[in-house]
Amino acid sequence: MTYYDRTGVVIDANRWCELHEQTDYLRVALTVVSPTLTVSTVWLGFDRSLGPPGGPPGSIEIFETMVFGDGIGEECVRYATEAEALVGHDEMVERMRSEDFEQALSKLSTMVRGQS
User: What's phi and psi for 50, nearest 5 deg?
Assistant: First the structure.
């Protein structure tokens, strides 16, 4: 398995373990949308994409945004860079705040993010 720091630089497993112990390093963004709905974006540090290992630059997915609450827990969007993850987090928060909840869930279920 290949591990990456938050800038996308390859790191060894020992460094990944050290970083994974640091909550401030793991957490990219956390927004409580309502008492029962939270949007969380984290650094995973390993590639969760379905592409081949060592694929073209930008093909890795090392950040993840998930929505928790109101029976949600499996909905997520993944990103290659921290900048994309921050934008995606804000978009998810805005979507959860501005739309009818069922409509937002429907969009989340069909969302596909392109790679940059």
Answer: -95, 5
Indicate left, alpha or beta for 103 from its phi (over 0: left) and psi (-120 to 50: alpha).
Answer: alpha
Query: Domain for residue 41, yes or no?
Result: yes
Cβ-based neighbours of 15, under 8 Å, separated by 6 or more:
3, 5
Split into its structural domains, the chain has a count of 1
> Which tens digits make up the pLDDT trace of 20-59?
999 999 999 999 988 888 999 999 999 877 655 555 555 7
Range of the domain at 56: 3-110
Q: What is the C-alpha separation between 89 and 78, in angstroms, rounded?
A: 10
In the predicted structure, residue 112 carries a pLDDT above the cut 50: no
pTM of the model: 0.77
Token pair 């392109």: residue = 114
> Looking at the domain assignment, is residue 31 inside a domain?
yes
Res 116 pLDDT > 90: no
Note whether 88 and 113 are within 8 A (CB): yes
Quick check: is 37 in a domain?
yes
